[in-house]
Design brief:
The protein is mostly helical. The chain folds into two domains: 52 residues; 223 residues, Orthogonal Bundle (MetI-like fold), CATH 1.10.3720.10. α5 packs across α7. The radius of gyration is 23 Å and the shape is globular. The chain starts with a helix and ends in a 5-residue tail after the last helix. It is a multi-pass membrane protein. Belongs to the binding-protein-dependent transport system permease family. Keywords: Cell membrane, Membrane, Transmembrane, Transmembrane helix, Transport.
Length: 280
């Protein structure tokens, strides 16, 4: 009886968590294909009588206004998120290997400082970052957004990959070195191929963080050519009011890339996060 009660309690908890995740996104999709009148109807209608695809059509054909900026913002977000993810995976993997395999003075202290940067919120560092980007002449450029994202994504990648590298046996690397493989050859031919689940998990987390970053993009970009999609979506709110339907449609479009990545690579996410907890 106690076992059945515990299982029932677990299932209820899982359903509550699942509902808290799915229901808001479901309402976002419903709002994007509804009209303002349907959204304010009492009692609330979960399924609109007529699908309103006007906002999606305007996103495709609009040449001026916020909908036109949305296409530019979507392109900028892809460039920034992909660039930051690739750089962080490359640099983070090398740094994680150094922290895992090499011995040097102050290694633990340096790693602690790297993790400390994860605790500091963006609002604390945004002013120094703004001053640096301004002096380098990088304001309103995609490069400034990539560098700002890397400053916060790179420590996470180093931490995740360090845990994963720790689970790879030293013997594999030693045998490769005995056979004449250099250290870099060992990294790129042995360590990284065995770390695909960890790289996938780190890459997905890095992409999602860079894709969803709003505050730094809002401060560092003020032109249409440099704004990301998260900043463009905020522009649907004006002094006149908020276009909830158009904002919902833009939100659906913005959520498609990270959702697809999570669905396609969900197996690697689980493997990448759990493998580091077991050392070989």
């Amino acid at each position: 009886m106690n076992r059945k009660f515990r299982q029932s309690f677990v299932y209820i908890g899982v359903l509550i968590v699942l509902a808290s995740i799915v229901v808001p996104f479901l309402w976002l999709v419903i709002s994007s294909v509804s009209t303002r009148i349907q959204l304010t109807t009492v009692p609330l209608k979960w399924v609109p009588e007529v699908l309103n695809l006007k906002n999606y059509q305007e996103m495709l054909v609009a040449e001026t206004g916020v909908n036109a900026s949305l296409k530019i913002g979507l392109r900028n977000s892809v460039v920034v998120a992909v660039s930051a993810t690739l750089f962080c995976l490359f640099a983070g993997s090398l740094a994680a290997y150094a922290f895992t395999r090499l011995r040097f003075r102050g290694k633990n202290v340096l790693f602690s400082f790297i993790l400390l940067s994860q605790v500091m919120p963006m609002i604390v560092l945004i002013i120094p970052i703004y001053i640096i980007m301004n002096r380098l002449g990088l304001l309103n450029t995609l490069l400034s957004l990539v560098l700002a994202d890397c400053a916060f994504v790179l420590p996470l990648v180093i931490w995740l990959m360090r845990s994963y590298f720790s689970s790879i046996p030293w013997s594999l690397e030693e045998m490769a070195r005995i056979d004449g493989c250099s250290r870099f050859g060992t990294i790129f031919r042995i360590i990284l191929p065995l770390s695909k689940p960890g790289l996938a998990a780190s890459g997905i987390f890095a992409f999602i963080i860079a894709w969803n970053e709003f505050f730094s993009a809002l401060i560092l970009s003020s032109t249409t050519r440099s704004k990301t999609i998260s900043v463009v979506i905020s522009e649907y709110s004006s002094k006149v009011g908020v276009d909830y339907v158009a904002m919902a449609a833009a939100g659906v479009v913005a959520s498609i890339p990270p959702v697809l990545l999570a669905i396609v690579f969900q197996r690697y996410i689980v493997q990448g996060l759990t493998a580091g907890s077991v050392k070989g």
